[in-house]
């Protein structure tokens, strides 16, 4: 995983976990990698992963079964979408809209690009 400088690492790891959930790689009630396992995999401090897991637990995306580990919460997909939607609307969309305005990109052009992106990224094997 390549980390960006503009956002805290634990938040980027949260995005990584959320993406795995939304893509169906990690499913409800499944155990997620332990704090140490994910820290080794991502080459970060275990405390950083623990901070991520605590954030996601507070958002009802992960649940902690004491002594066993962290698991994907039953309503994780719904909760991830809510959490990520708020983030996107508050943080990314204003920057995106500014670029659209400054570059004079219309919604029709944007829609065509979006449809091509979805087709190429998610429907081709």
From TrEMBL:
Top-level taxon in the UniProt lineage: Bacteria
UniProt name for this protein: GntR family transcriptional regulator
Parts of the chain that traverse the membrane: none
GO terms for MF: DNA binding; DNA-binding transcription factor activity
This protein's record includes keyword DNA-binding: yes
UniProt entry tagged with the keyword GTP-binding: no
Lineage of the organism: Bacteria, Pseudomonadati, Bacteroidota, Sphingobacteriia, Sphingobacteriales
CDD domains the record matches: WHTH_GntR
Keywords attached to this entry: DNA-binding, Transcription, Transcription regulation
């Amino acid at each position: 995983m390549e980390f960006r400088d503009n956002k805290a690492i634990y938040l980027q790891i949260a995005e990584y976990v959320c993406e795995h959930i939304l893509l169906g790689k990690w499913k409800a009630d499944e155990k997620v990698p332990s704090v140490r396992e994910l820290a080794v995999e991502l080459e970060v401090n275990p405390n950083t992963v623990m901070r991520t897991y605590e954030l996601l637990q507070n958002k009802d995306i992960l649940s902690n079964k004491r002594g066993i580990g962290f698991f994907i919460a039953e309503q994780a997909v719904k909760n991830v979408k809510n959490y990520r939607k708020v983030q996107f609307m508050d943080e990314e969309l204003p920057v995106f809209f500014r670029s659209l305005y400054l570059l004079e990109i219309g919604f029709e052009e944007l829609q065509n690009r979006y449809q091509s992106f979805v087709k190429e990224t998610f429907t081709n094997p």
